[in-house]
From TrEMBL:
GO terms for biological process: DNA-templated DNA replication. The lineage of its organism: Bacteria, Pseudomonadati, Bacteroidota, Chitinophagia, Chitinophagales. It comes from Chitinophaga jiangningensis. SUPFAM superfamilies: P-loop containing nucleoside triphosphate hydrolases. It comes from the Bacteria. This is DNA polymerase-3 subunit delta. InterPro entries: DNA_Rep/Repair_Clamp_Loader, P-loop_NTPase.
Length: 378
């Protein structure tokens, strides 16, 4: 993978390239990236850059033998480690047991999370792990001489899955063989072994900027308005954006506009039909949750409008106009109440609440809030 193929994250890519060009490369680093922000693609692009035989100012050349092998995930000096499961009871699995599946997964779904990966290898309800046997295998491989590159590289995805057995790697991390590099790609800093965390250079990766997300979606022929909606809900998580793209045809903006219109006009018949539609099995719980998240994001955006110049906000003109109208209908106190209601509704939908009753109650409470009346006691 090349840096230019990654969605956004140009600042981190530049930092990684500069660390090599200026001879400031740490032998052990952690790319700490929220889900769907591109931590794994950054790690993959960086390993390809390291073994590239014709490095360019912006990254790997993409054409040399080192690049070709790295792009196919078959370079002999790049080793991968990731959570795995036993294929049968009593097995002591290592990452290389799943190397074919891994190559296919990172090619087709580099923004996926561990759930996607474990389902891809048929884990079902089994817990993935990076085992003590895996740590021993890592030590063995990294103590070998490099084959083709000047570096020997371990890219470990999700070191959070290392238990205390990860302490077996400490001596190797502290005193690695010459030109041996550890690249850890993680999502949750608190779940990484403190002993490993203290021995590595931490690079924090931010969620993908909205404008970069929108561009990536429109490049996939997603209509601009729809791309804006998806990017708003996904909040920098490309995995979430792809999921929304594949699993929802709803226009959340129109859905929200109709809902509030029926509430304000007191159109009970239309409101009841709206509740029936949003609560149907066809809509599904995931879509209901994403709709609520979209409403929350627009409310947060309405608050930002009071303090930030419009030109600095990556929202469509339609969303900007709608958020401005929300501000006229609800003050800060009302917005806070609505967000709390929507958060609670999201929580209960996740726990299989009756959607029809939930959206009916929400509609009544929103009427009270917009009229600045005390909420009815439940």
């Amino acid at each position: 993978m090349l840096f230019k193929e990654i969605i956004g994250q140009s600042a981190v890519a530049h930092q990684l390239v500069q660390s090599v060009q200026q001879n400031r490369l740490s032998h052990a680093l952690i790319l700490l990236a929220p889900e769907g922000s591109g931590g794994l693609p950054l790690g993959l692009a960086f390993t390809q850059y390291l073994v590239c035989e014709n490095k360019q100012p912006e990254g790997a050349c993409g054409h040399c033998p080192g690049c070709i092998k790295a792009s196919q995930y078959i370079h002999p000096d790049i080793h991968f480690s990731y959570p795995v499961i036993p294929r049968k009871a009593g097995d002591k699995p290592v990452s290389t047991d799943y190397v074919s599946e891994w190559r296919e997964f990172v090619t087709t779904n580099p923004y996926g999370n561990t759930y996607d990966w474990l389902q891809f290898i048929g884990a079902e309800n089994k817990q993935g792990n990076i085992t003590a046997t895996e740590c021993q295998d890592i030590i063995r491989k990294l103590n070998l001489k490099s084959f083709e590159s000047g570096y020997k590289i371990l890219l470990m995805w999700m070191p959070e899955y290392l238990g205390n057995e990860g302490n077996r790697l400490l001596k190797l991390i502290e005193e690695p063989p010459v030109n041996t590099l550890f690249i850890f790609v993680a999502e949750n800093q608190e779940q990484i072994l403190a002993t490993i965390l203290s021995r590595t250079h931490l690079i924090k990766v931010n969620p993908i900027p909205k404008e970069d997300m929108v561009k990536s979606l429109t490049d996939r022929n997603v209509p601009a308005a729809r791309a804006q909606q998806i990017a708003t809900i996904a909040a920098g998580n490309y995995r979430e954006a792809v999921y929304l793209l594949q699993n929802s045809d709803d226009d959340y903006h129109e859905l929200l506009r109709n809902w509030l219109n029926y509430i304000f006009t007191g159109n009970r018949g239309a409101l009841q039909d709206w509740i029936e539609g949003i609560s149907s099995a066809k809509t599904g719980r995931e879509n209901q949750k994403q709709f609520l998240r979209y409403f929350i994001n627009l409310l947060e955006h309405a608050v930002r409008l009071q303090f930030i110049d419009r030109s600095q906000l990556a929202f469509s003109a339609e969303e900007m106009d709608f958020s401005s109208k929300l501000l006229k209908l609800a003050g800060m106190e009302q917005i806070e109440q609505i967000v709390e209601l929507l958060d609670n509704a999201y929580y209960h939908i996740e726990r299989n609440a009756n959607a029809k009753m939930l959206f009916h109650a929400l509609s009544i409470k929103l009427q009270y809030i917009f009229k600045k009346k005390p909420l009815p006691q439940t």
